[in-house]
Amino acid sequence: MKQIHFFALKDDLLPILETVERDIPIKYILMGQFPKMEFETFSNRMQIPGLGRSATESASSGRSFLVTGQDVPIEVRPIKTTSGIRYALDQLSNPDTVTLSPGGRWGEDVVLNGRVATASDTPPAQELMKIFNRAFRKQFSSIKAFYVGPRGRHSIRRRKATNCCGAVAARV
After folding, report:
1. Edge-to-edge strand ranges of the sheet holding 98-101
2. N or C: more exposed end of the chain, with fewer CB within 10 A?
3. Tens place of pLDDT per residue across the chain (172 aa)
4. In whole angstroms, what is the distance from residue 2 CA to residue 125 CA?
5. Could you tell me if 88 and 33 are in contact, meaning their C-beta atoms sit under 8 angstroms apart?
């Protein structure tokens, strides 16, 4: 299992993350390339700022988090650029992780899809995927290739739209 696609608002996603946290102590680390070796890390779902709201108009360019066990060390890759060294935090150096791209509400009338995924076949990454998958299956409905939370389902029923990349976004 490599990825799970979903539509969820904050109130849909919190119970999913609570279920995962109950099964295994995890941490969430904001992914990206940074000028310093300082990374936003959260020990539970309630600490993640803006959960359920997208900061961008595209699901593919929104925030993503590495999710892994609390005790798993995180590796950082230095990247040489023309303006100096940047520090990359991603799955390339962290195979025992999954990524969480929560998606969520963009503006007032669009809900962007989210995704849980991994590029790794390691047992810890696959165990996290199984836990997430079990939580989504129990708590969300399935509509085509997406799991849909109760509030997300209400949004999709009202009207669907497609963005320029062909990814489904729900208008509310």
Report:
1. 41-42, 26-30, 65-69, 98-101, 114-117, 3-7, 146-148, 141-143
2. N
3. 689 999 999 999 999 999 999 999 999 999 999 999 999 999 999 999 999 888 777 777 688 999 999 999 999 999 999 999 999 999 999 999 999 999 988 877 788 899 999 999 999 999 999 999 999 999 999 988 899 988 766 555 554 443 333 345 544 4
4. 10
5. yes
Backbone phi, psi, residue 56, to 5°: -130, 165
Question: In this structure, are residues 14 and 127 in contact, taking their beta carbons and an 8 Å threshold?
Answer: no
Q: Tokens 């995890």 appear where?
A: 26
d(CA 118, CA 122): 10
3-state secondary structure of 118: coil
User: What is this structure's pTM?
Assistant: 0.86
CA pair distance 76, 94, nearest whole angstrom: 8
Distance CA 67, CA 27 (A): 6
